[in-house]
Amino acid sequence: MSKDQLSDMDFDFAKPTDKSQVKALHPWATFYHVYSAESKDEGLPLLDMNGTELGPQLSERDFCKAAIEGTVRVVNAGGGGALYNFVGRGGESQCDCSPYAPHLPDHVKEGLGRTRWGISGGPFGTGAEGMVLVPFRSIAVDPQYIPYKSVIYIPSARGSELTLPSGRRVRHDGYVYAADSGEAIKDNHIDVFCGVSDKPFGSFITSNATGTFDAFLIEDDDVATKLAALHRNPGSTQ
Predict the structure, then answer these.
(1) Exposure of 45 by Cβ count < 10 A (0-12 exposed, 13-18 middle, 19+ buried)?
(2) Which of 40, 138, 206, 231 could form a disulfide with 193 if both were Cys (CB 3.0 to 4.6 A apart)?
(3) How far apart, in whole angstroms, are the C-alpha atoms of residue 9 and residue 123?
């Protein structure tokens, strides 16, 4: 899917039938987004897994905030830029990111300064197994709790107002797709991808482990096929 297609997609799936709701879940939710930053003449370089500089340099704050989100759009002085994704952890830390991530577990905070990057394979970022991230559709999961490529229906998300990257206003139909993971995403914790928006949508995203809500694992071939197509990397053969 192109950026334009993902920016202006529809949210018009019908409510699931009782028969399609094969498993009840009780997750809690946080959210994440594409972080935006300006490249600096003097800053922390984005490095690949071999330690090679990719070009952009970020302030310590921007580097750490980008590492927390896992995707960063870097704009250079000329107005151009590129999208970079988390690809792993390197051996040497470039900075201490703990002041920027007081809410994260210690083992995650300690690794943020070792974040390594690559050019994104999707217009809004790349998730697990090479899937592209789709605003308001993709969620990061613990695959032991929710397998990748699962369709999840969240009743309390249905009807939530969204502003798509294109600027069009729509209401969410409640369906999301397990397309990503994260070091801090364990057990019944899910992380909802909000694209370029740094605001959550829907009252179900409380960023609090006590804020669980009802959700359902769905088996619906039509919905699954369409959501899989949205998340398919154009360069993938699967």
Answers:
(1) middle
(2) 138
(3) 14
Pairwise CA distance, residues 212 & 29, whole Å: 8
Q: Does domain 35-119 have CATH number 3.40.228.10?
A: no
Backbone angles phi, psi at 111, to 5 degrees: -90, -15
Dihedral over Cα of 182, 216, 131, 58: its sign: negative
Asked if residue 123 lies in contact with residue 196, where contact means CB atoms within 8 angstroms, the answer is no
Cβ contacts of 17 within 8 Å, gap of 6 or more? none
CA–CA separation, 160 and 118 (whole Å): 33
| Residue pLDDT, tens place only, 161-179 | 999 988 899 999 999 999 9
- Pick left, alpha or beta for residue 120 (phi over 0 → left; psi -120 to 50 → alpha; otherwise beta): beta
pLDDT tens digits for 87-140? 999 989 999 999 999 988 888 999 999 999 999 989 999 999 999 999 999 999
- Collapsing DSSP to helix, strand or coil, 100 comes out as helix
Please count the residues of the chain.
Answer: 238
* Residue 208 near residue 132 (C-beta atoms within 8 A): no
The CATH code of domain 3-33+126-231 reads 2.40.40
CA distances, 200 to each of 31, 160, 226 (Å): 6, 10, 24
The CA-based diameter of the chain, rounded to the nearest angstrom, is 58
